[in-house]
Each structure stands twice: as C-alpha cells, then as structure tokens.
Amino acid sequence: MGLTLDRKHTDEESKQCGMLRRGLLAWVSRVGVLLVLVCCSLSLLYVMTCSPHSEDNLVSHALPRPGLGVGAAGGTGGAQSGPQGREDYQAMLAEREEQHKLHMASLKKQIAQLKEALQERSEQLKGVQETMERVAGRGQGRQSPGGGALGEGGQGPGADRSHTDLQEFLRSQLGRAEVHQGTRLPNEYAVVPFESFTLQRVYQLEMGLTRHPEEKPVRKDRRDELSEALETALRSLNTPRDGANKGRTTKVYSPSDFIEGIARTEKDKGTLYELTFKGDQSREFRKLVLFRPFGPLMKVKNERVDTANVPINIIVPLSQRADKFRHFMHNFREVCVRQDGRVHLTVVYFGKDQMNEVRSTLENTSREINFKNFSLLQLNEEFSRGRGLDVGARAWKGGNVLLFFCDVDIYFTADFLNTCRLNAQPGKKVFYPVLFSQYNPTLIYGNHDHIPPVEQQLVIKKDTGLWRDFGFGMTCQYRSDFINIGGFDVDIKGWGGEDVHLYRKYLHSNLLVVRSPSRGLFHLWHEKRCADELPPEQYRMCMQSKAMNEASHGQLGMLFFRHEIEAHLRKQKPQRSIAKKT
C-alpha cells in the first residue's frame, strides 16, 4: 500500500514538472518568435526606406534636366532653373540626405538593439531548458537510489548565487563612493577632483604628456568612455517612462542638447558622471548621474620568472666626453659587475678624438676587476645616436639578447636591471621606462661648495628633478624585436628624433609597450648645447628640453625675480637693525 502511494506521488510530481516545463518553454518560445517578427518587420521597413530607387526619383524630379532652358521649364518653374534655383535644389537635397542618414542610423540602432534582445532571450531560453533538464534529472534522481543527479543539479543555484553576489558587490560600490553624500577627508590633498568635458573637449588637471589643460581626447579608451556615457544618457532621456508622459509631447534629445559633463574616478570604487542637457524650457535643464562601478579583482596570471640566465647588452653611443665616460664606468663597475654580473657593455665611438682615453678606461676596468664582457666599436663619421645604437645592436652575434639603449649621462641601479628583464619579452613586450631627470645642482643647492656627491643628489623630489615623460631614448627590448621592427632611422643626424620614430614603430605594432616611471633610472644634469645647424624642429625640441631640465617652475621664477628679492632684502636689513636696538 505504501509503495503504491509513493508511486502515485512520484507520478504526480513528474506530471507537474512536465507541465511546468512545457508552459515555460511555450512562453519563452512565443516571446522569441515575437521578437523575430518585430526584427524582420523593422528590417523590411529599413530596406523599403533605404531603397536607392526613391532617392534616384527624388533627384530626377528635384533637379532640372540638362539642356532645358528657362522657357522650356514653363510657368513659375522657369524662374527657378537658373543658378539660384539650382542652389535651392542642392540645399534641399542636402537637407533631405541628412534626414535620410539620420533615419538610417536610427533604424540600424533599433535593429541592433532588437538583435541584442533576441540574443538575450535565446540565452534565457537556453537557461530555462537547462534548468528544466536539471529539474527532470533531479526527479529521476529521487526515484533512483543512487542520487547522483542531485549533486549535478547544484550547479544552477551556485551560478545564480555568484551572479547575485556580483550584483550586490557592484551596488555596494555605489554606496561606498561619494555619489549621494560626501565623505570626511583629512585635508585638501585628499580631494578627488572632477574633470569637465563637452562634446569636443576635456578640461583636465592631470595634463599628461601633452601638457595641455584642455584638449580633444587623444587616447581611444578616454574617447570611448565619454562617448558611452553620453550615449547611455541620451538613451535614458529618450526612453519613455510608463505613464509619466501620457497626453503630452516629449522632446527627443540629441547630442546637440548636451551642455557639459563632469567626471571623476575613485580608483577603488568606480567612475562618476554627471551630465547636463538643455531642458524643454529656456531655463530648464535635465541632469543625469551615471556610475560605472569597478568589479572585484580577478587573478589573471601566477607565474615564476627566472632571470638568472638573462644577460643584458648595454649599448652606449659616444663621441668625445671621455671624462663623463669615466664617471659612467665608475657606476658600471659597482652595479653591473659587482652586484649584477650578467651584463655585456658595447661602446660605439664616433671619431678619433679622445678615443685612446676611452679605450684606456675600458682596459683599466677590465684589468682591475677582471671584466671581459665589453666591445668597443669605432665609426669614423659624424655622431648620430640612432646610427650608433643600430650598429651596436646588429654587431651582437650571440643569439637573441636583451638590449638596453643607454647614454653616458645615465645613472642606474641593480634593481633597474631586474626591472628591465621583467618588463621585456621577445615577441610580446618592450619596456620604455620614464627616468627621473636631475635639475641643475648649482640652482638646487645654491653654489658648488654645497653640492653633495652624485649618489646623495639622486632623490626623487619635486625640487630636485622631474619625470622625463617626453623622452624615449632609454629602452629595454630584445634584439629580435628591434631587427624585426626595422631599427632606427639612421638618416637622422645629431640630437633627438630617432628615439621617437622607433617608439612610434612599436606603438603601431602588436607588441605591448610597457611605459612606467622607474625609481632606479636617473638622467644626470649636464649643460646642453643646441647647435645652430640643427633643423628648426630639432632645434625647438632641444631648447624645450634644455629649459625643462634646468630647474623647477618655482626655482626659475625665483631666479627671474632675483633683483626684486635682493632689493626687498636690502630694505629689510635697516628695519631689522633698528628693531634690535629698540
């Protein structure tokens, strides 16, 4: 008797599951068919509207036929067949063509949205089918003593739970960010400022490499980000709210109604956008607030990187400057030979003047510390940095090696050499570090008597130097990548330009360019001379570099106003002496 009741109960459950599955499948199928029909209807409407025959007819009726004069047109039409009439027709055609294009764009967008909705419904249908299959399997699992289907059916709720957790996390990001209310901050330095933007321009505090306080967004991610925010706002404005606008005409918003927006990013929470549009009345506005929450961290890679067998070939082009080369070799001995020990030095020397001194410095270093991993190449031609680096890179015969293009006035640490190894990968990555450029020590420390040793000068502060983000000469890349990209433009003579050309080659390739500040790479200050024979563009670049490397904005200002400051100090001396006597 009990067995019969259990079987009846199980049969009833199976029937209920089957009915539920058939009902859900029928409902989702109807929705899918309806969306397909709507999509097909819109496609047909698009084809009919965008048919070229109607446009040809419009042109044939609108323009006067060639060869017909004023009298042939007849009536009032004859007055319009002159030059003025043609201009009117052309203006009308241009207006109709613009309307036609806008209508086409609108239809294309609607079709794309319907396709997305159809795809979403198809995925929902697939999800329902999988759910029903799991339910059916669970029912069978109850009937079978093994119960294996129960364990498999647990995947659905787990996936739903993960999706729900993600949604809750993203909503919590909105609550944590400064959107609805402010947060107590310790001081003015903790404020996250907004940037403002219009359709064409961004007004920014962090100016980057361009140094422009306002500019058209150059980076693609920035352009796409702002365009997406604007499109989302327009879609929200033009989507009718149920019952809100019944009985009255609503305005259709377009990009021309956008006035301005402000945006800021809290790097651990997300980006806030506030966009302002023209309203229906002259003093009325529409304001939309959007928030792009940042998701949780995602592990991408966990790998072991062995740099024990990764030598670096440091290539230094040189002409004269034997005293600077001695200072360079002093740092090279300590960092590259004693601390690192996996470095080869290639010096490409131009000319014969001071050549013996450079060779003597290398031989003394080799003899004193038993260092044999160096090459000295001589070129009897005019100095060209790009030519020297190109010759040095191609002269290597020991297989694919990591190259570090360096200058004689560069100071680097052993940590930088490891950073060089970690951020370059053959066929995948090249490393373009941003070095810290030292200001003129005489201006920083006042006079020569107070200038400390070089090692103590290399402090990263705003009054001691600047990040040289406009320079691309120091780089780590594998020889194979350098050869495949085409190397330097060896036709560039003298100072500057060759490094930018190579940098742009990599930007136009599929290799990843790693660009970041490096705390272990310094440019030592030296007096810069810009030769008169340089072309105007190179001379301008040279002078800009010279001005930026001399001192900070504040220090140059104090130097410019030094006469006023000295006059003020002279006036203060008598007043101080009188105050002391009293």
TrEMBL record:
GO cellular component annotations of the record: Golgi cisterna membrane
Cell location: Golgi apparatus, Golgi stack membrane
Catalytic activity: 3-O-(beta-D-GlcA-(1->3)-beta-D-Gal-(1->3)-beta-D-Gal-(1->4)-beta-D-Xyl)-L-seryl-[protein] + UDP-N-acetyl-alpha-D-galactosamine = 3-O-(beta-D-GalNAc-(1->4)-beta-D-GlcA-(1->3)-beta-D-Gal-(1->3)-beta-D-Gal-(1->4)-beta-D-Xyl)-L-seryl-[protein] + UDP + H(+)
One Pfam short name: CHGN
Annotated transmembrane regions: 24-48
InterPro entries documented for this protein: Chond_GalNAc (IPR008428), CS_glycosyltransferase (IPR051227), Nucleotide-diphossugar_trans (IPR029044)
Enzyme class of the recorded protein, top EC level: transferase
MF annotations from Gene Ontology: glucuronosyl-N-acetylgalactosaminyl-proteoglycan 4-beta-N-acetylgalactosaminyltransferase activity; glucuronylgalactosylproteoglycan 4-beta-N-acetylgalactosaminyltransferase activity; metal ion binding
Enzyme Commission number(s) of this protein: 2.4.1.-
Keywords assigned by UniProt, alphabetized: Coiled coil, Glycoprotein, Golgi apparatus, Membrane, Metal-binding, Signal-anchor, Transferase, Transmembrane, Transmembrane helix
Membrane topology per record: Single-pass type II membrane protein
Location (main, coarse): Golgi
The family this protein is said to belong to: Belongs to the chondroitin N-acetylgalactosaminyltransferase family.
The name this protein goes by in its record: Hexosyltransferase
Taxonomic source organism: Salmo salar (Atlantic salmon)
